[in-house]
Amino acid sequence: MIALWLAALGLGFATLWRYEVTAGAAGGPPGRWPSLSAIERPHGRPALLMFAHPQCVCTRASLTELERLRGRLEGRLAVYVVFLRPAEDGLDWERSDLWKRAAAMPGVTVVRDRDGLEAARFGAVTSGHTLLYDADGRLLFSGGLTAARGREGAAPGAQRIAALLATGRADRNDSPVFGCALRSADAAANDPSQQAGGKEVGE
Fold this sequence. Notes:
By secondary structure, this protein is an alpha/beta fold. It has one domain (about 45-200): Glutaredoxin, CATH 3.40.30. The protein has helices at about 1-20, 60-70, 95-105, 115-120, 155-165; strands at about 45-50, 80-85, 110-115, 130-135, 140-145, 175, 200. Strand 1 (about 45-50), helix 2 (about 60-70) and strand 2 (about 80-85) form a beta-alpha-beta unit. The longest helix has 20 residues, at about 1-20.
């Protein structure tokens, strides 16, 4: 019985570990800021956009890394956090603790993305997908900020963005994205850790 219990425990840990290090879909962001976007591109400075599912706990770590990155680059770029807002869900469904946390960050614009139209225009399909565009609207970076689902620290995506803005170069211009799918109100159900328990665009 002890052996069976240990085997089951090991299997459970292995399953959770595989989930933690399995990236979401990479999406296909456009090489230039999409002309149909209702998000106004800032002029004269780069722009950073993070697309987020407001009920995805994995995205807490992404916001932590975004806050650290923003602190290092304060004033050098415009920052947007774009939250999914499915049309079929109730009023203020997207105003979760993640929304409130992003809205409290100085210099960050929080955007409500009705029906995920902006996510589709920018080719983002996984929560935490972050895009960096230069002052001319050209894509410099596409990917996640964290090294795994819900993991803070040692964030390769954030380090690459900082390097691109500081020197114009990085070892890569992409990183895996770790988060829930950006597709519907129940996308957060993909995250086993949840089993227990601005400006509006696209209208």
